[in-house]
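Internal tracking record. Fields below are filled automatically when a chain is submitted to the structure queue. Please do not edit lines marked as system-generated. If the sequence contains nonstandard residues, flag them in the REMARKS field before resubmitting.
Queue: standard
Priority: normal
Entity type: single polypeptide chain
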Amino acid sequence: MVLAGAAMIGIALLSGRARAQGTPQTIELVKVDVQKLAAGYRASKVIGSSVVSKECGPINDPQLHASCVASFGK
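SYSTEM-GENERATED OUTPUT FOLLOWS
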């Protein structure tokens, strides 16, 4: 059942047309600048790390600190 649903989604995506709220839309491929993408990824990791440090840094209890860090998916 799940496989059939995935196949239908795949066929819809490969057809180049999608429907959003009943309105047909065309899907276009876009070139991605790998260097800009990598720079953005690095920046988001730095920003994310600073948020984790700010939020979890003051916690002195090792278990609570680990739990806090884990809540950010780190």
